[in-house]
Design a protein that fits this description.
Structural class: alpha/beta
Distance between the termini: 11 Å
Strand content: 15-25%
Shape: globular
Helix content: 25-40%
CATH superfamily of the largest domain: Periplasmic binding protein-like II
Order of helices and strands: HEHEHEHEEHEEHEHHHEHEHEEHEHHH
CATH topology of the largest domain: D-Maltodextrin-Binding Protein, domain 2
CATH architecture of the largest domain: 3-Layer(aba) Sandwich
Length: 351
């Protein structure tokens, strides 16, 4: 993990001194629906095993959580934003504008993105090319880009179930969507040869502009109802699956593992998602999980640093820790994260 120090602004110092005398005594945490169950487990254990109040943990999505974190410094603002994707430069810029000039980046482990359908439905053995071929606005036919006319999964790949294409995917505010776009849509688009066609068709002024156009083309999805964005959390996706028994949904591994009585998971490139296959690097659609801490609140909001240390402790996030039982894949560099948290190291420029 990389860290850096951004100079503290006068605004942040003034804000911190304003609320120091009357700070609330309960941590406020918001963000990723993927990290939510882990954070809830840690918060409850923290409240039961320490003298601090149980933190309040809410969902809302990675992007929304980071935006709330960057609203400013003070007891009316949150302390931590959970995130299933890495923070963006636009988030950091917003933070700096609002006086939030020191952030700690804490990587808690890894999770997988899984494709699952009703336990009563068909079996799916997918590749990124299959998913892209089913959901893309345009596909490749005879070496050219054409409007996607596939009606069933079998139209995309004859080995897949001959059922109507219906997929519920994370909306654009979710960190899961970013991973889905990069590791599924882009990879599938390249495997199908569409990326090169988009690149050749681009009117971009330089290579970077052409590549941007090609990526945007790969991310473009059909608008005929076959691909449906879900702006809520995974429970909403599950309810859609329960109402549409032949649909496929995108979930985090931990959510799936807590709902195996309702869902069956697809393989991707022949690999079944699990803690073991992600740890071994075999499952192709995995991502690191983070939370971001407003350093100005450490020492002001009671229990903030203690909560962070508790979260990344061996008992919680380490191999054999409590969170592993709920699907978290331990980070092999957890010791470095623990040291950075102990030192209150702030993060550095995005690479």
């Amino acid at each position: 993990m990389s860290f850096f120090k951004v100079s503290t602004s006068v605004v942040a110092l003034l804000a911190a001194s304003t609320f120091a005398a009357s700070a609330r005594d309960q941590l406020q945490i918001s963000g990723s629906s993927t990290v939510l169950p882990y954070a809830t487990i840690v918060a409850e254990a923290f409240g039961e095993n320490t003298d601090f109040n149980t933190p309040v943990v809410e969902g809302g999505g990675s992007g929304a959580g980071r935006k709330k974190l960057c609203e400013g410094v003070g007891e009316t603002t949150i302390d931590i934003a959970n995130s299933s994707s890495r923070i963006k430069q636009s988030d950091i810029d917003l933070c700096n504008t609002n006086g939030v000039t020191e952030l700690m980046e804490v990587r808690i482990g890894y999770d997988g993105i899984v494709f699952a359908s009703s336990i009563e439905g068909g079996d799916f053995a997918l590749t990124p090319a299959d998913v892209w071929g089913a959901l893309a606005a345009q596909t490749v036919k005879d070496g050219a880009l054409v409007a996607n006319a596939a009606k069933t999964w079998a139209d995309v790949n004859a080995t897949l179930p001959a059922q109507d294409i219906m997929a519920f995917i994370p909306g654009t505010k979710h960190g899961t969507r970013e991973v889905f776009d990069v590791k599924v849509l882009e990879e599938g688009c390249k495997a199908a040869g569409a990326y090169d066609l988009y690149l050749a068709a681009s009117a971009g002024a330089d290579d970077d502009a052409k590549k941007k156009d090609a990526v945007e083309g790969c991310h473009a999805l059909r608008a005929d109802g076959a691909s449906v964005d879900i702006d809520g959390d995974y429970t909403e996706t599950l309810s859609r699956i329960e109402a549409n028994k032949t649909a496929v949904g995108v979930f985090g591994l931990s959510f799936y593992e807590n709902n195996t009585d309702k869902l069956k998971v697809a393989t991707v490139n022949g690999v079944t998602p699990s803690v073991e296959t992600i740890s071994a690097g075999d499952y192709p659609v995995s991502r690191p999980l983070y939370f971001y801490v407003k350093k100005a609140h450490i020492g002001v909001i009671p229990g903030l640093k203690e909560y962070i240390e508790f979260f990344v402790s061996d008992d919680m996030a380490g191999p054999g820790g409590s969170l592993v039982d709920y699907g978290l894949v331990p980070d092999p560099d957890l010791a470095a994260t623990q040291a950075a948290v102990a030192a209150e190291t702030v993060m550095g420029p995005l690479e």
